[in-house]
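User: I've been trying to design a sequence by hand for this structure and keep getting stuck. Would you show me what you'd pick, starting by listing the structure so we're on the same page?

Assistant: Good idea, let's start from the same input. This is the structure you sent:
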């Protein structure tokens, strides 16, 4: 096992922890790399890389299919990973479905509900069937992955899609939500943390509104899982998704959490091998969850890597990680508001948030600003961040986004602020 540079949670030391992340040791364009794009994808510690490498070089085999030694070892590692990742989000192993990521998880749910609409699945799945006049509710701040699947489901079923609006400060309009979520609402899908605004949304209030009318709740936890202690059952949501590559883990793996009675009632989405009980030439019977939703060869190595990632986050201490990132975010905000021509999105007072700021640079396109920062070794995100409707709400087509993780330091923030202060001058825009 590789020794870890993880600090004690009480004395969080991101500078020491960075030794676990090989990519952070390099220079970019002649400058030390300042990586502020963890909201798009996080960097991976060597413990995660080693876990995948060890599996591939010692135990690589198909799971649940073979009687030989390697197959048994691979199956044990795969299911142990499920247990570890499920525990990380407060769930039981049978409540965690492996997916290729959050986008697939959300599509799985939307298409499974669509299959219930056409009469597939167990009799219990009839509770999910949608018809014309039923309503699906999302919000104005959603990532496209938690918007377009519901658009498509509405188009296939005749249901109506409605949206909870956002205030000018980036907080959701809960008064409007109370009027939108009503007796025809069947599904309420919303994000835990906006990938543009960084605000932690009021899950309890939204779940309460949905439960009052018997609506299914679906939570996008991609931007909360790496940054906050997460207990999905305690949040009261019916279903939730998260993505491994945003939480120090590998690409190509994520999780779909579901309350047991929900997963047991949902019909499958993908079908094929490994998710069946019996098959004839004319029909098939399906396994119980989670295997019912895991057709074909699964992301075995990535799942094992994700288990190593959640172990790393747990060793760091999510409370300490969150506190560290919030301190850095406050330092970043204090510097940004002092720079002329910077407009922050989601700069609400008195709300919980993660370490993420999106902003506009007056007179400079976001892509130009991003290229200027990249020339100084600073990696940020530019564009609409797969949230075009939200940008349109704020009268913008694109923004610059700086997102923090547990491996960022005060020197990262200071280098970023120093560079941002020179953007408008470089492009000849008067302060």
């Amino acid at each position: 096992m590789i020794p870890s540079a993880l600090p004690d949670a009480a004395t969080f030391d991101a500078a020491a922890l960075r030794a676990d992340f090989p990519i952070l040791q390099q220079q970019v364009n002649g400058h030390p790399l300042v990586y502020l794009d963890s909201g798009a994808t996080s960097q991976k510690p060597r413990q995660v890389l080693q876990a995948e490498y060890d599996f591939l070089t010692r135990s690589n085999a198909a799971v649940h299919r073979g009687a030989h030694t390697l197959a048994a070892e691979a199956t044990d590692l795969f299911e142990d990973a499920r247990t570890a990742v499920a525990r990380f989000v407060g769930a039981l192993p049978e409540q965690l479905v492996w997916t290729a990521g959050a986008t697939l998880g959300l599509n799985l749910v939307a298409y499974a509900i669509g299959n219930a609409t056409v009469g597939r699945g167990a009799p219990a799945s009839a509770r999910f069937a949608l018809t014309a006049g039923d309503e699906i509710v999302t919000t104005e701040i959603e990532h496209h992955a938690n918007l377009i699947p519901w658009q498509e489901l509405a188009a296939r079923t005749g249901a109506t899609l409605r949206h909870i609006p956002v205030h000018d400060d980036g907080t959701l309009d809960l008064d409007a939500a109370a009027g939108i979520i009503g007796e025809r609402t069947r599904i309420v899908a919303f994000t835990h943390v906006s990938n543009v605004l960084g605000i932690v949304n009021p899950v309890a209030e939204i779940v309460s509104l949905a439960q009052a009318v018997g609506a299914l709740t679906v939570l996008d936890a991609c931007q909360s899982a790496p940054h906050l202690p997460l207990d999905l059952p305690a949040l009261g949501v019916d279903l939730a998704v998260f993505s491994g590559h945003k939480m120090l883990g590998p690409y190509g793996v994520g999780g779909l959490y579901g309350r047991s009675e929900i997963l047991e009632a949902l019909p499958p989405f993908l079908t094929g091998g490994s998710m069946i009980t019996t098959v004839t030439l004319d029909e098939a019977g399906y396994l119980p969850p989670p295997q019912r939703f895991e057709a074909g060869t699964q992301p075995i190595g990535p799942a094992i890597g994700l288990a190593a990632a959640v172990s790393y986050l747990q060793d760091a201490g999510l409370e300490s990680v969150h506190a560290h990132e919030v301190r850095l975010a406050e330092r970043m905000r204090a510097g940004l508001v002092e720079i002329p021509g910077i407009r922050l999105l989601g700069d609400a007072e008195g709300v919980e948030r993660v370490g993420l700021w999106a902003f506009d640079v007056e007179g400079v396109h976001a892509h130009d600003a991003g290229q200027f920062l990249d020339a100084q070794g600073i990696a940020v995100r530019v564009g609409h961040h797969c949230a075009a409707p939200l940008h349109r709400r704020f009268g913008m087509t694109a923004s610059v986004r700086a997102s923090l993780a547990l491996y960022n330091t005060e020197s990262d923030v200071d280098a970023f602020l120093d560079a941002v202060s020179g953007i408008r001058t470089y492009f000849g825009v008067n302060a």
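That's my pick for every position. To get oriented when you compare it with your attempt: The first helix runs from residue 14 to 17. The first strand starts at residue 27 and ends at 28.
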